[in-house]
Every structure is written in C-alpha cells, then in structure tokens.
Amino acid sequence: MTLILAIDTSCDDTSVAVTRDLAVLSCKVRSQMELHEAFGGIVPEEASRAHGEAIDRVAAAALAEAGISVAELDLVAATNGPGLLGSLLVGLNYGRGLALAAGIPFYAANHMLGHVFSPFLAGDGFSPPLPAVTLTVSGGHTLIGLLDPDLRHRYHGSTIDDAAGEIIDKLGRRLGHPYPAGPHVDAEALTGNPKAVRFPRPLRGEPAFDFSFSGLKTAFLRELERAPLPADPALAAARRADLFASLMAAIADCLLDRIARLAKEAGARACLFAGGVAASGFLRRFMAEHLPRHGVEPRFPDRAHCTDNAAMIAACAYFRARHRTFEESFADLSADAFAQFDFEAGAEG
Ligand code: KG4
Ligand code: ZN
Question: What global pTM score does this model have?
Fold first, then answer.
C-alpha cells in the first residue's frame, strides 16, 4: 500500500490529491478562472504567483480531507511538464521540499502521461486487457497511443492542426457560449440530430494515425453562413442542437476510425479515454454504441478526473515510481514547459 500526495500546477488550476494506491482519498482543485477572466486570458506571471499563494492551503486541505498526515506519506509526485514554466516550478519546488522534509521519495511526472493513467482511478481494481489504445482529447491535445502489457506507453499519432477541444471551444464561443464552451456544446449536442449536417471527416482512411480538425471548423462556419440560425427561438435552438450534434459526431467518427484501426493493428481490445473532452456525454454515448462493434471496450475516467487534476499525477506515480528510493529521486527537479513526446523514439518526455 502506497500513500501518495500529488501536485499539478501545469496551467491555471492549483491541484493537490492524496491517494492510497489508486483509490482517491481527496482531490482538491483551486481554479484561477476569475483571476484570468479579469485579464482576458492567462497571464503566466499572475498564474505562478497565484499558485505560490494557494499551494500550501490546497495541500493542507487535501491532507485534511484524506485524514492523512505528512508523516504517513510514502511518496510525493508533481508535474514537471508540459505546462507554464513558472507555474510548474511552484508545484515542483513545493513537492520536492515536502518530500525532502519528510525524507520520502519524490517523482516528477509528465502531465500527458498522467491523463493516460486517469481511467485507473475509479478505485474498482480496473485492469484492462493490454495492450490498450489510449486517447487523450483535451483543449490543447488530441493524442492516440498504446499502453503495452508492461505498462510502457507510446504515442502513435496526434492532431496536425487544432485539438478537438479547441474547435469545440471556438465554435461554441461563436454561438455565444462562455469559455470553456465544451460542456455547453455537449449538452446541446445530446439533444440534436447527429446526421442533420454531413461535416467532413478529415484524414479518414489515411495510413497514419494523425488527426486534423481545422477543416471541420471551416465547414461548420460555412454551414452557418449558408443557413444562418432562424429568428424564431425554438427553431434556432433545434438548429443549434443539430449543428453541435453533427459537429460532435464528425469529431467522434474521426476518433473512432483511428482507434479501431490502431486496435486492430496492435490486437488491442480496450480503449482508455482521457482529457477534458472525455467528459463529453455525447462522446461517451457514441463510443459505447460504436466501439464494441470493432471488438473494443471503451473506458472513461470519472468526469472529475477528465479535466486537469492532481489525482491523475498520483496514478502516474503509482505505476511508475512505487518502488523508487529517496536517493533515486534526487535528480527530479527539472521542469520543461515544452515537454511533450518524441514519436521517433517513442519516448514519454
Ligand atoms: O484536459 P483539459 O481540462 O485541459 C487541457 O486542455 O489541458 O480539457 C479542457 C477541454 C476544453 O476544451 C473543454 O471545453 C473541454 O475540455 N470539455 C468538454 C467537456 N468538459 C470539458 N468538452 C466536451 N464535453 C464536455 N462535457
Ligand atoms: Zn491536461
């Protein structure tokens, strides 16, 4: 049994979680949304200052809710990239200091790999057949990969332009939703007809596993120009729902195509979803309906673990660093704002 305290300060949320192995005892997320709204966007210096002010309180709250003292912890983990450099350093330094003071190992985790492991956090002993396809869909990333039987992870494709969440946010905003528009677009899409408009499915049938969504954005805007929303409120609502349902269906269809193909090639029978867009009810319904036909079981994280959170960093540490020693953790204080993945080497960054 490993008691883990994990920290994620990669962007504009200060998050601290405490887990017992993969069971989440607490997961606190303090949003900086209001702060950045005042500036009309994320100001990196403001973000790191806000993390610095919040981190100690958020950590104390996470420990209190878990009913765990620092002396009981076995391991501390924190995100070292990708993210905003100044923000990452706050979480890393705090976590490292805590580990040093407690005399326990520290582990620096890759944020994207944290997302990959988030479906394991349900605390139900979930153990998918491996290899499994992984799909991380967020505001900034659309990544497909494979989790091997030895729990090594390797990326096989990504978007070559916009991320799926990015176009959902942009088009939702175009129709009047506040940022992030994803949850609102999703709610409308669930009531619409996904076959109302036939949007393109870019790169479908191509040999690679990459995605492209910018053409879909253009097609949506063109359709809106061709047939603007009706003035009648009830008709407008129905048309919006159809447009969003058709958009979500096009995105989901592209994801399905790459998932099914990679699963077939690798002999995978499960797909692990992650990232903010994995909270989408439309996507969940679509995948539950279509993936089993390809012999693939979809698995989604709890909604709270789709968007950025520290519990997924604990899950990553659980799989990667359970048996590491205090000495082994000494070199882990480097942060890389651009840490990503290296397709050529298949490295995790
Ligand atoms: O992973 P995430 O919290 O942040 C990063 O981008 O790293 O993902 C945020 C994205 C946003 O684009 C947001 O609109 C989208 O996830 N999102 C959703 C839903 N909840 C959040 N998209 C569709 N349906 C949702 N329910
Ligand atoms: Zn993220």
Answer: 0.94
